[in-house]
Amino acid sequence: MLRKLIIAMLCIAMIGSIAIGCQTEAAEETTEVAEETTEAAGVDLSEMAVGFVNAGPDDYYAQFGDVFKVIAESYGMDVTEVNSDYSPEKELANVQDLIAKGVDAIAVITVGAAGSAASIEAAYEADVPIFFIAGKPEILPGTDLQGHVTDNFVIMGYQVGKWVVDNVEDPVCVNIPGFLGQGPAEGEIVGFDLALTEAGLEPAFLTKSSEWQTTLAIPIVEDLLVSGREFNVIFACNEETAVGVNTVFKEQNVTDKIMISCNGKEIGWEMIENGEMSATSPNPPSLNADLSVQQIVRYLTGEDFLQYLQIMPWDVLTKDNLDQAIPWITADYMAGRQANDFEWDLSYYEDSYTENADIFVDFDAKLVEYLESN
Q1: Per-residue pLDDT for 197 more than 80?
Q2: Which of 159, 216, 303, 307 places its Cα 20 to 30 Å from the Cα of 171?
């Protein structure tokens, strides 16, 4: 027994070493490209310090931080990461602390749209460039931010809603939303219901928020099943929530429901391969973080870039196209980036956004209308 345990521990150690080695090798190759870029611009980014303010401790945000640091450090920049623990007050305090430390730029994943206004105002008054990732920030008159990279969560919700309309006969849907107040959760709600109503179907029944968390999703699903509500499709706002749904379904032997989600992370790939989930709209934080760093680099080197960038989702992930998924895991993302297995260059996404600007405007307007009426 002891021998088996030792062998298992050695295997785990070897796997970890291989993963770290792959990440290190990819990061070193990325660094070479980054150094060429900054040398051409005549700017020494190794003297630059960047602050990264994360919204909370869940896996989605952790992946943002991991990739952000690897990419930023490949350019020679020093990164300080702090966490707001879902508190707008702590977010502002984090921004103020980073300003006091003299960082050259700050990137923020905001806890909530309203709270972001104070963070932007603090950076603006201190003349420190501030960039946002994901959730839509609120900008007070007379202030501004330098850059924003986000997925369009309305389009993501719409995509999985369209998949349901096209693939499920007579769908009756339930939606477990994410953390309300940030913007992404509301975006998914709006997009999903839009796809349903366009098809002449009823909007999804909205449960309590799982706040993107597995542990909070479990009692929501349990209460839903006890309630006796009829449904055949459940939209889990993210794959942590989907894990919670799947846990309850397995415990109660629920086999007649179709689950769809958003995120496209590796655990979602597994659930799709196992038939536990049917489709998910991908929004890899690894890509968002990469593009945000590229915005910061362009700002610091005096190059032009689109101030507001939204990523056009290429498709929903299903069993048929999982090989095209962009990894979340840092080592895998960096290896894929180096091999050009997927599009990662800022210019590509700027061109895509510009080409589809009318679509983004239309979906953004629907989100604003929803937020103003709720």
Answers
A1: yes
A2: 216
Query: Whole-angstrom Cα distance, residue 159 to residue 69?
Result: 31
pLDDT exceeds 90 at position 349:
yes
Q: What is the Cα–Cα distance from 119 to 135, expressed in whole angstroms?
A: 14
Separation of CA 159 from chain center: 16
**Which tokens go with 230?**
């009829």
Give the rounded percent of residues in the chain with a pLDDT score beyond 90: 76
Q: Could you tell me which residues are beta bridge partners of residue 281?
A: 262
Q: Are 126 and 146 in contact (CB under 8 A)?
A: no
Judged by DSSP in three states, 373 sits in helix
Q: Which two tokens stand for residue 165?
A: 């309309």
Place of tokens 């921004």: 95
Please count the residues of the chain.
374
CB atoms within 10 A of CB 217: 28
pLDDT at residue 206 in the model: 97
Tell me the CA distances in angstroms from 336 to 29, 301, 322, 329, 344, one per residue in order. Answer: 12, 26, 14, 11, 10
3-state secondary structure of 162: helix
List CB contacts of 317: < 8 A, sequence separation 6 or more. 264, 268, 269, 272, 279, 280, 281, 282, 324, 325
User: 209, 178 in Cβ contact below 8 A?
Assistant: yes
- pLDDT tens digits for range 171-182: 999 999 998 887
Do the beta carbons of residue 119 and residue 251 sit within 8 Å? Answer: no
pLDDT at 288 > cutoff 50: yes
